[in-house]
Structure formats: structure tokens, C-alpha cells
Write a structure and sequence with these properties.
805 residues, alpha+beta, Phenylalanyl-tRNA Synthetase, Chain B, domain 1, OB fold (Dihydrolipoamide Acetyltransferase, E2P), Phenylalanyl-tRNA Synthetase, Chain B, domain 3, 6 domains, 7-stranded mixed beta sheet, 19 helices, 42 strands, elongated
Length: 805
């Protein structure tokens, strides 16, 4: 949001520099992200002066050029070669001196240099209006009517004004500061300085020549609607002061009526809309919703299909405007307009937000309406705007003001206790100072006692509805920098923190994953309600629903990180980035009856090729084991690897996979995402996904590191070929072997898998290696054979496994 300091001065007296205002506003919560100088004419006409043509004769070497002698206030006349047909002796002109930079309209800037033109020296340039950015005419040089002395800066003649513009990074909760007057309100209390009048609120007497009936059918969507008509106006170009005000904040002037409404919008924060009164059929304005799919053409000449939730401003026959968002092409103000109906309203933020999102229309008006403007400022802004339009366009007030406000919006009632103010701020403030700050912020003190205050907060402060909000207001005005740091630092926490540092653990795991070629992603916790319908394990009854949802795609809090990750995969794959390894630390949200919970998860995705294509080796697609190896490494890094057990994953949303458990607690799922589910997300390749219960791992994490001496004696490897039932898993074999031989069996690994008709129906063969090692001595053949026979007999007895010789 851009704020012009000159404009700001119309609402409050300011002597501070732009830098001082920057520091003051930033420290109070309106963060200034930049300060830039605005010039109504680019370059400010620096290096351009008033000159007088003392002599003019034809150039001997060019028919269309003239050689002039110009007095620019120096000791000698300046020779200037000029190509303008209207140049003549005795004229007062604008001269660009050597070294000046010109910014011609529609062209690149250039520097005036000493030159020779067809053999004649030229020390400057006599300018046309388009050459210095003052207009578009290039018919000839500008001839001035002035008595100013030669050499006077041209900026003085044209009365150019420079301004400084503050770029404020407005946070969503501070819509009260989304205008020049809103910023002035903060400066009022920060500087202890009164505000000026917002403008002329005394309307001329109405001639009642153009009454317009107003009917509000949907009072929920439109709690307040006001309007007035003005006739006998002349739509034309705005004066320079208004155009410069709008240009300073990045707006293009349109005409005096539209510019006036924009001036009030950015000046007072109240969006307005001017309708051509001649196009209001039936002399009636109706505020209502229309049937789903109704066609409506907006000002940008695009035909749109309306939602049944779109609040519309209609006449007796047809819609004219999407309320608070965008006007219609048929009812807008044009050069032929002679009378207008001027609207000023307060619309329900949720309705405007939905319409703005639905039609993807982000307008300055919608920006303010959807966050909540001042419902009690509508008529004041309407009166100021009407008087401004009469000043700019002439005309007469031609109706009484209509103001439909059946259920006035009340102030927020908030009680604060001084002890809580002292505790949260960390410093005991004088009670009179607290009351002065609150009064300066337009917060009414209803009653007071030694314990605290009962307050009435104006409804335009939509973010101040609790005691903590009021205390924050007191602190930001008092100044965060004014809270001293005590010699003995201490802190209170609202919850107990574990002994381990969760951020360090997260950082270690992130480093491990990034080192393995993964990239971290961050996705939105808001998602589509329809997603949970794809998974039997989740129910829409457990959705945490957003009351003021921005759109249907952001209607609930996610119950799983799966779908937000699939969206990221689809986005990248559609842009030819098909080989992806991604991870995210995020949260899921659940509702059970009236209880709400949130849980932290680590999600990991792999898809595409395992490695980049190379002439040295063929690339292979990722597989389940590509992901399970990473998950196993993660558990090993956090010292959980010895406690893990696995089960087959059979669940909707997965083609296959494993469930990881620690002490019978499910801590992770790893597997292949169901192909149909991936395809619905726009992904046509295999996706492998893991979700890890990060809350549980942090809770059970033991940072203790166990050290052991490196064995001095060699390990021994023995291999077996095991023929077994297809349903038998390697994990079952591994767990049995480690229980059967606890002393010298160190590890087991599958290095080959075979399935074929010669094994028999429903059979498979694993080639398994066994690593044996005794840390105290070298193993002999007798010990090795005894151990292997023990394992073979156990496999045959427990699982019916056949040992292939």
C-alpha cells in the first residue's frame, strides 16, 4: 500500500522527514518497506531553464533548421540549433542546458550534450512539451507567456511539486490503516497531534429532481447502504492536483468523477461507486443475490457467470455491479454522463471475499471490504465525496441521502485488568498514560476502577476484540523499544518444553534428507474438503471447517499431508520436472465431536528416475525400496532402528506398502500411492510416499549415543537360498533369526529374489546373506555350522521353508 506524505498532510500536520515517519510507523506496526520520491514530471525538469530567443536565422546548411542565440541568464548568449518551425526571436522558451537529462513521453531518456549540427555549434535544446514529459504535442516548441527572468528554473514556472511516497507492507489484520486517514489516525496518537477535517460534510440543499428508490433484500450481506444523486454534472479530465495525488500512489487518472471516488477510497478507506443515473432503469436500486449462472458483463467487458452467493447491485430490470468488487459495463460513468447515483455501503466481508475469489477479481475496493471497513463512516465519506464531485464536475444534489442501516453494528466490549497489562508488556505503565493511549486510539473508556477498565472498541478496529488485543495496541503505541531489558533475564512458557531441542533434531533430519538429494517443500494447511472422500481412513466428520473460507479449494484444514504433496508433484511434473525427491514437515488437523487436535508429520515423496541419465550407466525408476531405505536411515539416525517392527500395509489410497511400529505404536507408513488416486491428482507416473509421526518420534527421542569398540576379530558371511510361500515377508524371517541367535548373528540381507514356474505355484525364492561375528574371538567352523543349522531347522519348522542346495 502506498501513502503520499503530501496527501497525508491534508489530515494531520507533519514536520517530520520521510525517514522519521518511516521509523515511527514501522515501530508501531505499520511497517514501511520503502520510501521513494515522486515527481509529477519525470526528472523534475532538472537542468531546464526559462530562456529568451534573442536572434534567429536560417541554418546555411539545412532548410528545416534554425540557428538561434538564447539568453538563459548567463554572461553570454547560448547558440542553439533548433528544428522547430515556430521558433522566432523574442520568444520565451524552455531550454534544456548541456548535461540535463530529458524524459520524453513514450521514449527512452537521453542527456543533452554539446554538439555540432551541420557544422554549427549547439549548446542546448529548445524544447517541445512532449520532449520534457509535459504532454504529447510535438507540433513545435513551447512558447511561454511569462515575465520570469531568464535562467529561472523551468520547474518554478510550471509549479512542479515533488512528493515522498511510503510503501507500507500492510498486514491482513490492519485494514484500519488501509488509507491515508487510517495512517493519520496512528500518527495522531504517536505524535500527540490533532487530526484535521476529512473534508466538507455540509451538502448543498437538494433540488429533489432525481430521487432513486433503494431496496436492500439481503440485509445479512449488506448491513448498511447509503446513496445520493447528483445531476447536471460535466464529466471531464481531473485537475492536476488530483491527478498528481493518484499518480503518486500508482493509480492512473480516468475522469473527474471516477478520480473523486478513488480519492475518497484511498483517502478515507471507504470504497464508493458512481452509477450513471440515466442507466438505472425504473429509478430503483435493489441490493440482492441472483440465480446461479446469471450472465453479467463487467467493466473489463468480460462476460461472467454469477454465483448464487454473489451480492449484486441491480436496477429494476438487470444487475449493474458485483457489490464491493467490480462494476458493470452498462452502468459506468462515461463522458456523456450528466447525472450519477453515488453509492457508499458496508458489505459483509465474507460475501465480498467469496465473490472476489470466485471471479478472481482483486480490486482496491474488494481488498478493503473483505477485511472489514468502518460501518459508521459510510455517510461521512458519501458527503465528502459528493461535495468533491460538485467541486470538480459542477452539478447539484438532486435527492435526499438514503441511509438504510436497520441494525447498527455495535462497538466491541472489552474489559482489561492492569495486572495483565503489566504482565504481558513486562513493565508497569502509568495508568493515566494507558488511558491516554486508548483514548487517542478512539477506544472509549466506558468505566474505570483501580483494577482495570471497561472499554468500547470502535467496529473499524476488527482486530481488537480481546483483552490481549487491547494490550498489544497499548504496547505498539508506547513502543517496543521503550521496554527495558532487565539485568536478570527470565522467561515464562505456556507449555512444558522437552529436554531435547526439537528444532535441532528437525535440522539434523533435514540435513540428512537434503544430503540424500531431497528438497524441502512447504504447502498450505488449507485444502479441499473433497480430498478425504478418496480415503476410507479419513472422514469428513473429522474435518476442521474454515468459517470464512477464501474458496472451496481452501475450505478445510488438512487431515493428511498426502494431497498437498501430490499437488506439488503434479505442478512440477506438468512443467517437465519429473524426477522428484521432496519432503515436508507439516501438520494435520482433526475434529472429534467438540475437540480439536493437530499433529506434526514428516512426509516424504519420491517419483520418476532414481538418478540422472548418464552415458556411463542407465537410469532406473524409483521403487518402494528407494523410499524405505531413506525411512530406515531416518529411524537409525534417531536411534529407533533396533525397536522397529513392520506389518503389511493394506489401506485405501495405497497399492502396497509397510506399516512401521515401535512398541506396537504405528509410527510410519511407507508405500506406493494408489495409481487411480495419483491420476486424479494429475500424475501419470508411480509415486511413493511415506508419512512419519513426527510428534511421537520427538516425544520418544533419546539423544543418548551408545559407543562400542570396533571389533578386533573378523566377521563371517554365509548364504542360504530359501524357497517359501509368497505371502511370507522378509521381515518375519529376519525377526525370527535375530530372536533365535542373539549372540553372533549381526545382520541379515536379501541379495536376490526369484519367482518361476519351476518353484511351484505360490512360491518364491530369497537368496539371503547372514553376517556372523564374535567380538571376543575368531569364529571357527564348528560354531558357524552350529549356528547355521540352528537357523535352518528353525526356518523349516516355523515357516515350512525349503533350503535349496
Amino acid at each position: 500500500m502506498k501513502i503520499s506524505i503530501d496527501w497525508l498532510k491534508t489530515y494531520i500536520e507533519l514536520t517530520e522527514s520521510p525517514e522519521e515517519l518511516d521509523k515511527l510507523l514501522t515501530s508501531s506496526g505499520l511497517e514501511v518497506e520503502g520510501v521513494e520520491e515522486f515527481e509529477s514530471v519525470k526528472g523534475g525538469l532538472k537542468g531546464l531553464v526559462i530562456g529568451e530567443v534573442m536572434a534567429c536565422e536560417k541554418h546555411p546548411g539545412a532548410d528545416k533548421l534554425s540557428i538561434t542565440k538564447v539568453d538563459i541568464g548567463g554572461e553570454e548568449l547560448s547558440p542553439i540549433v533548433c528544428g522547430a518551425p515556430n521558433v522566432a526571436a523574442g520568444q520565451k522558451v524552455v531550454v534544456a542546458t548541456v548535461g540535463a537529462t530529458l524524459y520524453p513521453a513514450g521514449s527512452d531518456p537521453f542527456v543533452i550534450k554539446k554538439a555540432k549540427i551541420r557544422g554549427e555549434v549547439s549548446l542546448g535544446m529548445i524544447c517541445a512539451e512532449d520532449e520534457i514529459g509535459l504532454g504529447e504535442s510535438h507540433d513545435g516548441i513551447m512558447v511561454l507567456d511569462t515575465d520570469l527572468p531568464n535562467g529561472t528554473p523551468a520547474a518554478e514556472f510550471f509549479q512542479l511539486q515533488s512528493d515522498y511516497v511510503l510503501e507500507i507492507g500492510l498486514t491482513p489484520n490492519r485494514v484500519d490503516g488501509a488509507s491515508h486517514y487510517g495512517v493519520a489516525r496512528d500518527l495522531k496518537v504517536l505524535l500527540d497531534r490533532p487530526l484535521k477535517s476529512v473534508g466538507n460534510e455540509a451538502l448543498p440543499e437538494s433540488n429533489n429532481e432525481l430521487p432513486i428508490e433503494v431496496v436492500v433484500e439481503n440485509e445479512e450481506a449488506c448491513p448498511r447502504y447509503a446513496g445520493v444523486t447528483i445531476n447536471n454534472i460535466q464529466v471531464k479530465e481531473s485537475p492536476d492536483w488530483l491527478k498528481n495525488r493518484l499518480k503518486a500512489i500508482g493509480l492512473a487518472p480516468i475522469n473527474n468523477v471516477v478520480d473523486a471516488t478513488n480519492y475518497i477510497l484511498h483517502g478515507l478507506g471507504q470504497p464508493l461507486h458512481a452509477f450513471d443515473a440515466a442507466k438505472i432503469k425504473g429509478n430503483k436500486v435493489i441490493v440482492k443475490t441472483l440465480p446461479e449462472g446469471t450472465s453479467f458483463t463487467t467493466l473489463d467487458e468480460e462476460e461472467r457467470k454469477l454465483s448464487a452467493n454473489d451480492l449484486m447491485i441491480c436496477n429494476a430490470e438487470e444487475p449493474m455491479c458485483i457489490a464491493g468488487v467490480f462494476g458493470g459495463v452498462e452502468s459506468g460513468v462515461t463522458e456523456s454522463t450528466t447525472s450519477i447515483f453515488l453509492e457508499s455501503a458496508y458489505f459483509d466481508p465474507a460475501y465480498i471475499r467469496r465473490s472476489s475469489q470466485y471471479h478472481t477479481l482483486k480490486t482496491d475496493a474488494a481488498f478493503r471490504f473483505e477485511r472489514g471497513i468502518d460501518p459508521n463512516g459510510t455517510v461521512k465519506a458519501l458527503k465528502v465525496a459528493a461535495n468533491l464531485i460538485i467541486e470538480l464536475a459542477g452539478g447539484n444534489i438532486s435527492s435526499e441521502i438514503t441511509d438504510l442501516y436497520p441494525n447498527p453494528i455495535q462497538s466491541f466490549e472489552v474489559d482489561i485488568k492492569y495486572k495483565n497489562v503489566d504482565r504481558l508488556i513486562g513493565k508497569v505503565l502509568d495508568r493515566d498514560l494507558i488511558q491516554k493511549i486508548l483514548t487517542g486510539l478512539d477506544i472509549e473508556i466506558v468505566s474505570k476502577s483501580e483494577v482495570g477498565l471497561k472499554l468500547a472498541v470502535p467496529p473499524y478496529r476488527v482486530d481488537v476484540q480481546r483483552e490481549a488485543d487491547v494490550i498489544e495496541e497499548i504496547l505498539r503505541i508506547y513502543g517496543y523499544d521503550n521496554i527495558e531489558v532487565s539485568e536478570n533475564l527470565n522467561a515464562d512458557y505456556l507449555a512444558e518444553f522437552p529436554q531435547v531441542d526439537p528444532d535441532k533434531i528437525k535440522g539434523d533430519i533435514s540435513q540428512m534428507l537434503s544430503g540424500a538429494g531431497f528438497q524441502e517443500m512447504m504447502t498450505n494447511s488449507l485444502t479441499k474438503a473433497s480430498y478425504v472422500e478418496e480415503l476410507v481412513s479419513y472422514s469428513s466428520e473429522n474435518d476442521v471447517v474454515i468459517l470464512n473460507a477464501l474458496s472451496e479449494d481452501l475450505g478445510v484444514m488438512r487431515q493428511t499431508l498426502l494431497f498437498s504433496g501430490l499437488e506439488v508433484l503434479a505442478y512440477n511434473i506438468n512443467r517437465r520436472q519429473k524426477d522428484l525427491k521432496l519432503y515436508e514437515f507439516g501438520r494435520s488437523y482433526h475434529k472429534k465431536e467438540d475437540n480439536y487436535t493437530e499433529n506434526s508429520w514428516l512426509s516424504i515423496f519420491v517419483t520418476g528416475a532414481e538418478t540422472q541419465e548418464s552415458w556411463r550407466a542407465k537410469t532406473n525408476p524409483v521403487s518402494f525400496h528407494s523410499l524405505s531405505a531413506i525411512v530406515n536411515a531416518l529411524f537409525a539416525k534417531m536411534n529407533f532402528d533396533q525397536q522397529l517392527s513392520t506389518e503389511v500395509l493394506e489401506e485405501a489410497g495405497w497399492d502396497y506398502g509397510l506399516i512401521y511400529k515401535i512398541n506396537q505404536k504405528e509410527v510410519a507408513k511407507v508405500g506406493k500411492v494408489n495409481a487411480k488416486l495419483a491420476k486424479k491428482s494429475g500424475i501419470g507416473q508411480e509415486v511413493f510416499y511415506a508419512e512419519v509421526d513426527w510428534d511421537y518420534l520427538l516425544k520418544k527421542f533419546n539423544p543418548k549415543i551408545i559407543y562400542s569398540e570396533i571389533p578386533k576379530f573378523p566377521e563371517v558371511r554365509r548364504d542360504l537360498s530359501l524357497v517359501m510361500d509368497k505371502k511370507l515377508t522378509f521381515n518375519e524371517i529376519k525377526n525370527f533369526a535375530l530372536r533365535a541367535e542373539r549372540n553372533i548373528l549381526k545382520s541379515i540381507n536379501v541379495f536376490d529374489i526369484y519367482e518361476g514356474d519351476n518353484l511351484g505355484e505360490g512360491k518364491k525364492s530369497y537368496s539371503v546373506s547372514f553376517i556372523l561375528q564374535d567380538p571376543s574371538k575368531t569364529l571357527n567352523d564348528k560354531q558357524i555350522d552350529k549356528t547355521m543349522n540352528k537357523l535352518i531347522n528353525g526356518f523349516e519348522r516355523e515357516f515350512g521353508i525349503l533350503i535349496r542346495k
